[in-house]
# Entry
Amino acid sequence: MKVNIPKGTRDFGPQEIYKRKYIFNTIKKYFELFGYVPIETPAMENLDTLTGKYGEEGDQLLFKVLNNGDFLKKVSPDILEEKNSPKAVKQLSKRGLKYDLTIPFARYVVMHRNEINIPFKRYQIQPVWRADRPQKGRYQEFYQCDADVIGSSSLQYEAEFVQLFDKVFRDLGISVDIKINNRKLLTALSILINEEENLTSITTAIDKLDKIGESGVVNILKKLKLPDAKITSILKFLSFRNLSDVREFFNDIELGQLGVKELEEIYSFLTNQQLTNTLTFDPTLARGLNYYTGTIFEVAAKNVEMGSIGGGGRYDDLTKVFGGEALGGIGISFGAERIFDVMEELKLFPPKIKSAPVLILTLDPIYQQHGYTILNTLRDEGIKADLYPAGDKMKKQMKYANNINCQFVIIIGEEEFRNQNASLKNMITGEQVTIDRDEIVEKLLKPENH
RNA sequence: GUGAUUGUAGCUCAGUUGGUUAGAGCACCGGAUUGUGGUUCCGGGGGUCGUGGGUUCAAAUCCCAUCAGUCACCCCA
# Structure
């Protein structure tokens, strides 16, 4: 039988799990340190909760869960006859796998409005699913690591997220550039050139700049039938590298002034704070997600070819789609899968990311109970330990110990059994000593052995 | 959804213009070494050549279809 796993999914072996946990734990550590509290939401949501939130394309990428029971019986015959999938889905499926963590979070906030304290700072590290075609760094099942603050418009949180990005990537050893911009500036740009109805198209065009270059962006803008003068204005805006130019550029646009003021306030929060990584104002940063209304972030790894490994931004009315009161907020996300790939590529994982147990070897089944007693003594002391099942030749047992990267093995043979002691071998140095039973724990607990 | 590309041992790959029994390295198993792994030497097992069809005296090799992976685009993390 030929077995396989679904497209875009992966198995993770022990080594990969250790590495992934290392990333998640680092992120989690700083989420906690910054006062965020964890929540989890189900793998499945009602389809009504998910559909229509991610655009038409997003709806197609939703995994739908087939209804239980005789689901075909409940579908009206005309719809089956019509072969209209979107219509049929409504009767075939009432649940879907979650597509991101943000919409389920919004649903959570509305449902639990009276239990949460505003401002509510939550983090969430869970898998999400998208029926996308897989490619490098993109899977159908992947983890998102999100943190959001809702119910406050204070720009201190922007500063906080900059520092959160900075510290996490510092700890992981990835050198990054944290790019920052404000959607208000992009909106102001569309007001300035009197193209407000094209805001979204212009924004998505700008977002592609680093991929398709200036000429590519110009081509898109020309297709939108923008006159050359307006395109020139857009390019001028994109060329700015400091805020004073932007302020001057938007002299008469109130929203533009506001955007600059917000960015300046974020910078002033950070004035006396040490950042390991760079923070760059980037007017070309746009981000595709339409719900962002204020500050936007994107984090790019230096020295490696990879899309963004983190991002986020400020939004209004996250909860409005579910009929709750309009609560705005700001959130960021770490692209854990891509961070993993970057760290593999740059060989940034620490060599000793896991610790193998001390392995007890017995040279004859008659000593197995004896070994089992020692095993429990070690475990009681909190020493990670294991006992090789009796019977195999010493060579095979040693090989096993070597393969699982044991630092120490304890050997119980005829001699040790007779003298009530044990042979302790350091697998790294090859050094082997005979010690009393009582000394084993003491010896293994020595700090240089950890 | 659109396009490109690759499927040969557990893994990474070689395999000439179609031509005898499809190879290598690593991994695995055994031995050299009956109480010592990681180094060395010797030996061994393991393949429907992704699948199905076609062309041919003859197909891993050529053609068609199909499935799967990978990569790019759209979009996105």
